[in-house]
Write a structure and sequence with these properties.
Layout: H1 3-14, E1 23-28, H2 34-48, H3 54-71, E2 82-88, E3 98-103, E4 113-117, H4 123-129, E5 134-140, E6 144-151, E7 154-162, H5 173-204, E8 210-215, H6 219-225, H7 231-234, E9 237-242, H8 247-256, H9 266-281, E10 288-290, H10 292-300, E11 304-310, E12 315-322, E13 326-333, E14 349-355, H11 356-363, E15 370-374, H12 379-386, E16 390-394
Parallel strand pairs: 5-8, 8-9, 11-15
Antiparallel strand pairs: 1-2, 1-4, 2-3, 5-6, 6-7, 10-16, 11-16, 12-13, 12-14
Helix pairs in contact: 1-4, 2-3
Length: about 400
């Protein structure tokens, strides 16, 4: 399972709640015997028969039976282990809808677990999909300051301050000197306030691997030069960026101008990829295609260098069966599952479905084509999603 598909599944599983402790979670570590797991679960089935509540007993026993049957489909434990989630997901009181969600994760499972609860145990999978590239941003001038976390491709504003530091006085004489001293004291208090917030935030967020200081004017240099932040935090500062703005625009401008500082990060790679896509799109005969069908046609011609799919695209490839015209596959939005056969107009039966990203992972094989996923957290990513969420960079015009 791809990381993108896993993220969506974890979000779905996290929203499920049982009425009682009837949701079953099983983690099988990489290299562990599936036979031993089946033996343990059969023993747990016997224990579950003693549950006093008849509906809960029935749901737990049924869930365990479904898990055991699924495990029997494997000849050996998958390379990275196996996670299984099963339980009654029906929203109707007294009704049962036992669903199984098997996961072959992208990284090795290290935890062996069997657990029944009102919610699924998701922490081992959440750790796998946690953003690995996390940076801090402090964007400030004498008027305001924003502290944010750049997690992967998403800017998360955390703290905002407005300052009361006045502008420079033009008055002459002794009053001007007194005003300058007062202003200097207010500026120092202001920078201490920002530093205290940064020390607290980045002291708690140990996952932040680098901090960028940005803003207009010299205030950011004063902030670094005079060592307002704790040593543990200031050691993570990787550079400064000049911006024309502060606030939300300043945070985005910081990321856009931090290419050299963040050149290996996913957000910069994504921005460069989408900028190349839009540059080609604006050319009269640009090497680009967009739209699901257009990209698939170009892919089948061997003309695609890179397929780009948005993580925010709520679309699936669904396999249907028409009683008269057989199997058909269509890309449909998740809220439009019912489809009619184009030839006979009969409503078709749904046989199976998969995420659009998983579909393209399969389609690019054999063509020497790369598949890149992009978020909708950046401005470019949002623009790409509005365009349809599926595009391609071509090797040649078609």
């Amino acid at each position: 399972m791809s990381e993108i598909a896993l993220k969506k599944l974890v979000k779905q599983l996290g929203s499920i709640r049982g009425r009682h402790t009837e949701l079953v979670t099983v983690y099988v570590p990489a290299g562990y015997s599936l036979h031993e797991v089946s033996t343990q679960l059969k023993s747990e089935q016997g224990t579950a028969e003693n549950i006093k509540s008849k509906p809960v007993r029935k749901n737990v026993v049924s869930s365990l039976e479904k898990i055991i049957r699924h495990i029997q489909l494997y000849k050996k434990t998958p390379e990275h282990g196996l996670a299984l989630f099963c339980g009654n997901v029906s929203e109707k009181e007294g009704a049962a809808d036992i669903q199984l969600f098997p996961v072959e994760p992208p990284e090795p499972i290290k935890t062996k677990l069997y657990w029944c609860d009102q919610k699924f145990v998701l922490e081992p999978l959440e750790e796998m999909i946690k953003e690995k590239e996390v940076y801090g941003i402090i964007c400030l001038d004498k008027s305001e300051a924003d502290i944010a976390i750049l997690s992967g491709k998403k800017i998360l504003p955390m703290v905002h301050f407005d300052s009361i530091v006045p502008g420079k006085s033009r008055a002459g004489g002794q009053s001007s000197l007194r005003f300058a001293r007062v202003r200097e004291g207010m500026l120092q208090d202001w920078l201490k306030k920002v530093a205290e917030a940064a020390n607290k935030l980045f002291g708690e967020h140990k996952e932040v691997i680098g901090i960028i200081i940005s803003g207009s004017g010299p205030v950011k240099e004063f902030f670094i030069r005079d060592n307002y932040m704790h040593a543990e935090v200031s050691q993570r500062v990787i550079g400064t960026v000049d911006t024309s703005y502060t606030g939300e625009f300043g945070l985005h401008e910081t990321v856009e101008k931090s290419g050299d500082l963040l050149k290996e990060s996913s957000v910069i790679k994504e921005k460069k990829l989408l900028q190349r896509f839009f540059d080609e799109l604006h050319k009269p005969h640009g090497l680009v295609a967009y739209g699901v069908r257009e990209v698939i046609n170009a892919l089948e011609m061997g003309a695609v260098d890179t397929v780009i799919v948005s993580e925010g695209l709520d679309m699936k490839e669904v396999e249907y069966e028409c009683s008269q015209h057989g199997l058909q596959k269509k890309f449909v939005f998740s809220d439009r599952k019912a489809q009619k056969c184009e030839q006979c107009q009969q409503t078709m039966k749904v046989l199976g479905e998969r995420e659009v990203i998983e579909s393209f992972e399969e389609k690019v094989k054999g063509f020497g084509t790369r598949l890149e996923t992009v978020s909708s957290d950046t401005r470019e990513g949002q623009q790409f999603l509005y365009l349809g969420g599926v595009g391609a960079l071509l090797r040649y015009n078609i």
